[in-house]
Amino acid sequence: MKRILPLIALASLSACGLRPVYGGGGHGAVAQTLGNVEVAPIEGKAGWLVGNALRDRLGAMQGGSGPHYRLVVKLDDNISGFGLRADAAITRERRTLRARYQLVDGATGAQILDDTAGSDAGIDVVSSEYATIAAEDTALERLSQTVADQIVTRLALFSRKAGNP
Questions:
Q1: By Cβ atoms counted within 10 A, which residue in 32, 98, 122, 145 is the most buried?
Q2: 122 near 94, Cβ under 8 Å?
Q3: Cβ-based neighbours of 46, under 8 Å, separated by 6 or more
Q4: Cβ(91)–Cβ(85) under 8 Å?
């Protein structure tokens, strides 16, 4: 009986209309669309990190035949202190990375998608300035990966919903 339950669960999921986003693998509609996205240059260190992460993820979709879409990303990177000791020294920081991005049709210049993504991370401020700066940089690297994942996921869902080739 224990072996049959997972099979019943799988059968019921397929009956409810769930389909994989990347159905068809590298030759599917979503992979074709994502493989045709060019990432515009993004300003700053955070922009360099997010841009590389996006290119890594979109470049993995080898189904594209060249850039048909342009992804324009604007970032807002902010560090704010919020934990205070009795001597008014900051003990905790929050690094926030927000992205506003637009997917633009390369042929017509029409904006197809306009959305936002973002994440934040907590950072302990310690007595060593070097350790604090290293923690801030590490947080930015993690946030860049998270924001890039959110953007690619949203593009994949949009292209699947729109049925773009």
A1: 32
A2: yes
A3: 75, 77, 97, 140, 143, 144
A4: yes
Assigned token pair, 153: 């996921």
Q: pTM above 0.90?
A: no
pLDDT digits (tens, 9 = 90+) for 80-131: 998 777 787 888 999 999 999 999 998 899 999 999 999 999 999 998 999 9
CA–CA–CA angle 25, 28, 32 (5° rounding): 110
DSSP codes, the chain: -TTHHHHHHHHHHHHTT---TTTTGGGSHHHHHHTTEEEPP--HHHHHHHHHHHHHHHHT-TT--S--EEEEEEEEEEEEEEEE-TTS-EEEEEEEEEEEEEEEETTT--EEEEEEEEEEEEEE--S-HHHHHHHHHHHHHHHHHHHHHHHHHHHHHHHHHHT--
pLDDT in tens, 32-77: 778 888 999 999 999 999 999 999 998 865 555 556 899 999 999 9
* Nearest of 30, 76, 72, 37 to residue 55 by alpha carbon: 37
